[in-house]
Amino acid sequence: QSETSDKSSAESDSETEVERVSVYHKLLATLKTSPESESEEEEDDSESEAAGESETEMDSEGSQEMEEADGGKEDKNDAPDQEEGIAATDTGEQTLGQEQADGADTSCDPSHGAIEEFTDVKHESEFSLETNFMEEESGDCNADKRDSNSSQALSEDPFKQHMDKELEEKEVEKMSMLPKTSSQSKWPRLGQLTFSSTLEKHKTLKADKEVDVKQLYLHKPLESTWPKVNKQFLSSVNKPSDHFFTPLQRELFCIMNTYQDLFYPERNALTNGEEIRHAYCLHALNHVLKANAQVLSNNAKRRDQKPGTDSDDYRDQGLTRPKVLMIVPFRECALRIVHIFISLLEVNDKRKIDVSNKKRFKGEFGSDPEEKPPNLKRPEDYEAVFAGNIDDHFRIGVAILQKSMRLYAPFYSSDIIIASPLGMRTIIGAEGEKKRDFDFLSSIEILIIDQADIYLMQNWEHVLHLMKHINLLPLDSHGVDFSRVRMLNLNNWSKFYRQTLLFSALQDPQINSVFNKHCFNYMGQVAVRNVPLSGSISHVVVQLPHVFRRLEAENLTSVIDTRFQFFINKVLPEYRDAIMSHTLIYVPSYFDYVRLRNYFKKEELNFTHICEYTKKAGVCRARRFFLKGEKQFLLFTERFHFYKRYVIKGIRNLIFYELPTYSHFYSEICNMMKATDNGVDATWTCTVLYSKYDAQKLAAVVGIDRTAQMLQSKKNVHLFVTGEN
């Protein structure tokens, strides 16, 4: 970045809106420019933490670790910090391609982008939107002319409708001040939907039973390439008229194409993950092709107009070029997205598109097929989530122009940015840092957050940090032609036009909060809200009494302390007797784990512990002590289970300090009891702590009907699952 940009970037991102606008008006007046270059990522400057093994770590230190953006050179298995991520070094049992062995420092490896970040500067003019024109012979040009000649086609195109809508001041005030009104609808495949909006009540969408491709307004060449690319998901059962989408894709795309925000919490890596990925890639690419075609077409019109003519008709772009931001957890996900883009742009084998830096991309984002994981049995969902290159520190700019794609484009020359939350966090930086940049997020029109549940296991703070820095006025002009910038961007109304697509494997208050508090789309929102009928407890196959113990908390903020006091005063005393040996305590929160571990040490209880920071030798030692009964208690974190999925043998008594984030972890942990050969199942116990604030997690475990009864009653609930044995 230039000096000007560095100086601007150091400005506090907490400055008032008035200050931001005044700085921006100064930019408007001076039309100051800075070279288009992507900010280099900061070096990893944090010290080794080895948090899980630190014997003196207190709660305050745990908080500090959570807030660090980078860290853990000594042991990269740091889920709260997620520098290279637990996933990246998780294991000897995964094919990690370019990742180093457990605990190795990969920060100097350029493929991890920590020190030297490659950006393609050779193809700048080829992919410049400002200096290129629509190719006369291309199908794109004809499509654009066809649309230009048909005002009806233009007026009905959802892209044009959404981006050309001119909001009034009073509407913006209304969206900022008033609560949303909502309505319910039931769709054949998605189920229960909640539509919400602040502006006039939109007519409730109805699910299309059949898809007319012309009504989708797909930009060329997508009309012809999409059926071929999506063919793998279509079964012979599909009607001939429905050869474009699966039933799930049809309903999801119906919502996406109206530019409403969407929250779909039933994404499953094993079943529907890939068909969802294809659907949002189609939508994102369709949006970018239309936006770029509009700019190129207007370039030609401006070139042909008489000198001295000034027109406001060509406002067709944002303050910065990136239009789509795709947040995904691992490099493998980015690899799959780029492959889908390439497939969608290639009309046939003869018309291959030109992809810059493809070989480099394959090397850095692919995995080594020769490295085979050891023969360790893992659940199918684990294998699906952790397939391929699972490094979680990356970001890459993608520019698309007609028949060409440029990978590793500088962000200010990119149309699409694909990144992990950590990759975004390290470039956005923190207040006071000299090298930070988030201007490229100013004009994002579509934000896609896929597999949001995994970020709960990484570091959710990175997602919140991103949401605070998206669609802000840029601190520098970056050479933009202000005569081409849409008024919505100049008015700082970008966030009201941004569409957010959020996909997750589960309902969670933190994910819900992002959707409810950080999404301001004037078109409104659609959330899928199905309730679980049976719950994961039905998959427990061992005979086991389940005791659900309710704790009473005055409010949400007091739950953490209330749970701790309830546990040490009422639950733990029952397990101190030697007869209650082999007790595993499952702890979802790392903070709670640190607090419990310190308490156990202080009370000199006979215990061992395993968390996401624990090194391999420490894990083996703890498992052996626990199995032999040399240690009475085992403190066990949820993140360790998420990233490793080891079977812990020797469990006779289970305590869920809090309900698990993933409901199927409940049955998985309970079913570990059958791995104990000499266990006497008559003495097995399972105790679960819950409060009224755990309604969503509770429903996912015991089902909606039992949850309603349990929340109404203030008594402890005893359930007995007979299982298959």
From TrEMBL:
- Span-the-membrane segments of this chain are none
Q: Where is this region: Disordered?
A: 1-162, 297-316
Acidic residues: bias regions: 37-69
Q: Where in the cell is it found?
A: Nucleus, Nucleolus
Predominant location of this chain?
nucleus
- Any one Pfam family here would be UTP25_NTPase-like
Keywords assigned by UniProt? Answer: Developmental protein, Nucleus, Phosphoprotein
- An example Gene Ontology CC term for this record: small-subunit processome
**UTP25 C-terminal domain span:** 536-720
Q: Which GO terms describe its molecular function?
A: rRNA binding; U3 snoRNA binding
Q: Which intervals hold domain UTP25 NTP hydrolase-like?
A: 259-526
Q: Which residues form the signal peptide?
A: none
Biological processes annotated in GO = maturation of SSU-rRNA from tricistronic rRNA transcript (SSU-rRNA, 5.8S rRNA, LSU-rRNA)
Record field: compositional bias (Basic and acidic residues): 1-10, 70-79, 301-316
Q: Give the matching InterPro entries.
A: P-loop_NTPase (IPR027417), UTP25 (IPR010678), UTP25_C (IPR053939), UTP25_NTPase-like (IPR053940)
Q: Give the function comment from the record.
A: Component of the ribosomal small subunit processome for the biogenesis of ribosomes, functions in pre-ribosomal RNA (pre-rRNA) processing. Essential for embryonic development in part through the regulation of p53 pathway. Controls the expansion growth of digestive organs and liver. Also involved in the sympathetic neuronal development. Mediates, with CAPN3, the proteasome-independent degradation of p53/TP53.
What protein family does this chain belong to?
Belongs to the UTP25 family.
Subunit comment: Interacts with CAPN3; the interaction is required for CAPN3 translocation to the nucleolus.
Q: What is this protein called?
A: U3 small nucleolar RNA-associated protein 25 homolog
The organism encoding this protein is Scopus umbretta
The encoding gene = Diexf
